[in-house]
Amino acid sequence: MVSSSGARLIAYCGNDCGECRVRSATLRGDRAALEAVAKAWSKAVGRPLDPEEARCWGCRVDGVLLSHCEIWRCAGEKGLESCAFCPDGPCADLRGVLERHPEREERLGRLRREADGGRPAAPGSV
């Protein structure tokens, strides 16, 4: 999936929204799938989520509210385009996501390299 600018929608954490099962369920209006997501995410965020809170169109889409996502909140507060550009390096929340989804680390690294004109990222950065 591409945005109106033609760029792929990559979440702050490196998720590819075009391949995301949650976004797909949101677009299809698949209530059962969103209920399953809400149940799984409830464990991760430490509070019950309702299926409406699990809906996601992509966290970088204007008007989206993901109150349960600390990465979304932090990136927004810092005005970041992506966690790839965080001057504080990967936080504990992002490290947890990257441990479960290592492909996202490569996406974030690619974003950073592209922004740096192809230069490799510093050791320990995303």
Structural class, by secondary structure, is: mainly alpha
Helix content estimate:
40-55%
- SSE succession: HHHHHH
Residue windows where pLDDT falls under 50 for at least 5 positions = 1-6
Quaternary state of this entry equals single chain
What is the number of strand segments? 0
Tertiary shape: globular
Radius of gyration: 15 Å
Beta fraction: under 5%
What is the terminal separation in angstroms? 23 Å
Number of helices: 6
Q: How would a crystallographer describe the biggest sheet?
A: none
- What's the average pLDDT? 85
Give a structural overview:
With 126 residues, the chain is mainly α. It has a domain at 17-99. The protein is 47% helix and 0% strand. The protein has six helices and no strands. The protein has helices at 21-28, 31-45, 51-54, 70-78, 92-100, 102-115. α5 (92-100) packs across α6. The longest helix has 15 residues, at 31-45. It is globular. The two termini are 23 Å apart. The model is unreliable at 1-6 (pLDDT under 50).
Task: Please write out the topology.
Elements: H1 21-28, H2 31-45, H3 51-54, H4 70-78, H5 92-100, H6 102-115
Quick structural gist:
By secondary structure, this protein is mostly helical.
Which descriptors would you attach to this protein?
mainly alpha, 126 residues, single chain
